[in-house]
């Protein structure tokens, strides 16, 4: 399980469980409950790379980021740290 502190969005943090390079579960702390439950359900079973490709760069209104974009940033951080650990 990895946790990511969000920046610039309503949710405060994201908890992500990844096993064998597949997203098993995502939980947003705070934010728009129904939308974030839907987002979590959609990325379940997806590879981190695919989720990053689909979610990165999405904006929320006038903000430069969004909860989906923050999830992509969390996944990028996870992949970078896991690749460093394997090296």
Task: Provide keyphrases for this structure.
globular, 3-stranded antiparallel beta sheet, 87 residues, alpha+beta, 22% strand, Enolase-like, domain 1, 3 helices
Describe it for me?
With 87 residues, the chain is of the alpha+beta class. The chain has one domain (2-86): Enolase-like, domain 1, CATH 3.30.390. It is 45% helix and 22% strand. The protein contains three helices and three strands, in the order βββααα. The chain has helices spanning 33-43, 48-55, 67-86; strands at residues 2-5, 13-19, 22-29. Strands 1-2-3 form a three-stranded antiparallel sheet. Strand 2 (13-19) and strand 3 form a beta hairpin. The protein is globular, with a radius of gyration of 12 Å. The two termini are 20 Å apart.
| Large-scale geometry | globular
- Tally of helical runs: 3
- Biggest sheet statistics: 3 strands, antiparallel
Task: Kindly state the percentage of residues in helix.
Answer: 40-55%
Helices and strands in order, then pairings?
Layout: E1 2-5, E2 13-19, E3 22-29, H1 33-43, H2 48-55, H3 67-86
Helix pairs in contact: 2-3
In short:
The protein has helices at 33-43, 48-55, 67-86, and strands at 2-5, 13-19, 22-29.
């Amino acid at each position: 399980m990895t946790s990511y502190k969000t920046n610039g969005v309503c949710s405060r943090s994201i908890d992500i469980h990844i096993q064998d390079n597949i997203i098993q579960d995502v939980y947003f702390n705070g934010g728009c409950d129904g939308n974030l439950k839907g987002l979590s359900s959609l990325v379940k079973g997806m590879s981190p790379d695919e989720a990053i490709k689909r979610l990165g760069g999405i904006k929320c209104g006038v903000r430069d980021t969004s909860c989906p974009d923050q999830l992509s940033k969390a996944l990028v951080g996870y992949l970078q740290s896991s690749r460093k650990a394997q090296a």
